[in-house]
Amino acid sequence: MGINSFWLFYIEADSILVALINWGNGRFYVASIGPRVAFNINNPSSIAKAADESLSSAAISADISPEQEPLFVGLVIPSSWVGEDGKIVKEKSEIILPLLKELDLKPSGFMSSDEAIIEESSKPDDFPASFINIYLESNSFELSLVYLGKIKKRVRKFFDGEFTAQLIEDTLLEFNSESTLPPQIYIYGNADESTVEELKNFSWVGKKNVETFLHFPDIKLYRDEDLVNIFFKAITSQMIGGGNPSHQSVPSIPPEEPEEKENETQEDIETPDEIINNDSDIYDAEITENIEEVSPENLGFTKEQPKEEFIEVPIIPETPVFETNIPSRKPSIPFSFPKINFKLPKLKTNFLIFLLPVALILIFLLIFFSKAKIILFLTPYEFEKTINITLDSDATEISSSIIPVEKKDADVSSSITVETTGQKTVGTKATGEVTIFNKLEKVQNIPKGSILTDSNGQKFELINSVQVAAAVINYNTGTMNFGQTKTSLSALDIGSEYNISKDVALTFKDFSENSIVVKSNTTFAGGTKEQVRAVSKQDKSKAESQLTQKLADEADKKISEELNNSSDILKETIQVKKGKIEFNREVDEQTDELTATAQSTVSVFAINSEIKNKIIEQFLSQESGYSDSDKNPESFVFTFKISKLDTDQATGSLTVKGSSLPKIDTATLKKNIAGKTVKNAQKIIKKTISRVYDFNIQTNSKLLNILPFNKNNISIDVKIKSK
């Protein structure tokens, strides 16, 4: 494929889409579109890989070989990539140029995406378009305010979290526009139907002191195929010189030369006066012989082009989804027929005698090897009956009141995690060493857990039971030596206030200071206290409520995906049984999150094909037309109205409704109409086939209007056709 085609690269901040644009039959059209492929903009190899993947897919879709791939590429980029001088900013050109070099492609120009949309929206014969253009990225958006085909204001906004319509309204209010805003919003990029719904559901009008629009704006989402259609029209409009003068035009591409026809000269063909239709998806145009590769230093739409050799290749058929037919003027070609004089040869009698049997043989062979197709339209027998029965999953045989069914079960497991909102005070107790002095002349036994108090009223307890030796009095010297022992204390409560200093005096609750004296030997340490999050009763209720709803949603999904796809099930008997909910934490337990898990069981009754046949036979056999019809259980619908539903049984009314075609002996019919004229075959069909109200006989032997003698060459189709 030579210069009669080019690639269209639509580049966004984190992805690229490649389309193949062809020229054929005097028009441009989209030959194929590759998928949108994501890339890391900070990784050149990632960008090149993404572009090559999308390009290769487009080439495969168009069924072209690598030798046929175009050398030129037109670029469509975000407006933020274009500087005030109209050129691609250096940071982005350092991304694009290595990409094109890697793919061995030649740039022919670029357009910003919003300029391309304006270019396509502003029809030459129509009033210039006014609208609000929004290009959405993951954490930012570009908003262009377009009035009468020109960008009046353009702004780029960044945001955290989710994109909302309020961001758009705030941006529009910042414009302080004195003119009425155009009530048309175009959005594309990282946008989908949920984005459109967000904009549609926003209260644009009717607010006090805020009036962005006179009436509710029309929201239009541009998908990838829409954008490619817009971009290629804008670019090809530039190529034929019909675009915005702010861009240089892409050189035109020469068409393929038509094949010369016999008795037809160049003077015989008139050129249409007008060959451009900007309102169509395809642009017809007279094109020149050359195209220019734009230098990487000055990407843009250029005018002067060096000549290149034209390569003729087969035209790839246009893809109908991207093309709208354009009325074209048919050239006026003068022509005349030559005069032909001829005479019938004189035939001899012997030749006629020979010709007659040959003709008869040819006619016989034509009839014998001919084929015919007969389509019969029949009125089906209609059946409907309601019976009161019990569906029983334990039953094995059908009766007048019991129908055996199969019980199908499916388990659904789910979990939910919520943040806790309860509060709890936690910490550690202070500990330290004390010396206990005994003033009495007898041994003192102090039990474990005895309570001591400091001067601030803070309580401590004895960690271990102790025995304090008796005091010793020296009467000669008049002195007393207290009995003493060392032991450990623990604060009775948590908190740093229990971290008391050394040499602090403490008193026992149950021992008088006249007999026992206590003093701290060390500074007490380890006492802490803090508020932490814990599980509250409300947290458990919230988790249980959310899990119940999630289980219901999961059950509906399971039913839709697995159970509803079966033609055997009775949807009316679906049951959902929720299991016990398990929590990973209890109330007042310290944690930041509470997780609840549970399992539900979805069950439904099903009637298999064998039982369906028996039901039809048992309850419809006495109905009119039953014995004369071909029954197909798949054409019958079984619906059940429940009066009582248990785990293994369901009681109610079962309605069987369906239709069956009349029985037809096609072998006998073929035998009866073989070799008959179409008219006689019609009579036989009307006479022998019951409930036929229309039929169609098709034969490739229309000259003789006779059906094949070989019955195997006759096919019969039976259809139901509404009267």
Q: Summed up, what is this model?
A:
With 723 residues, the chain is of the alpha+beta class. Helices cover 21% and strands 32% of the residues.
Segments where pLDDT lies below 50 for 5+ residues? 242-298, 300-344
> Describe the biggest sheet?
6 strands, mixed
Global Rg: 46 Å
Number of domains: 5
Overall pLDDT: 78
Cα separation of the termini: 54 Å
Shape: flat
Strand content: 25-35%
Give the % helix. 10-25%
Number of helices: 11
Helix/strand class: alpha+beta
Write the layout of secondary structure elements.
Elements: E1 5-11, E2 15-24, E3 27-33, E4 37-38, H1 44-62, E5 72-77, H2 90-103, E6 106-112, H3 113-121, E7 131-136, E8 140-147, E9 150-158, H4 165-175, E10 184-189, H5 193-200, E11 218-221, H6 224-239, H7 349-368, E12 372-378, E13 381-392, E14 402-404, E15 406-419, E16 422-438, E17 444-446, E18 451-453, E19 459-462, E20 466-468, E21 472-474, E22 479-481, E23 483-494, E24 505-508, E25 516-520, E26 528-534, H8 537-563, E27 575-578, E28 582-583, E29 593-606, H9 609-620, E30 629-630, E31 636-645, E32 649-662, H10 666-673, H11 678-688, E33 692-699, E34 714-719
Parallel strand pairs: 1-5, 5-6, 7-10, 10-11, 12-34, 13-14
Antiparallel strand pairs: 1-2, 2-3, 2-4, 7-8, 8-9, 12-33, 13-32, 15-29, 16-23, 16-25, 16-26, 17-20, 18-19, 18-24, 19-23, 21-22, 24-25, 27-29, 28-29, 30-32, 31-32
Helix pairs in contact: 1-2, 3-6
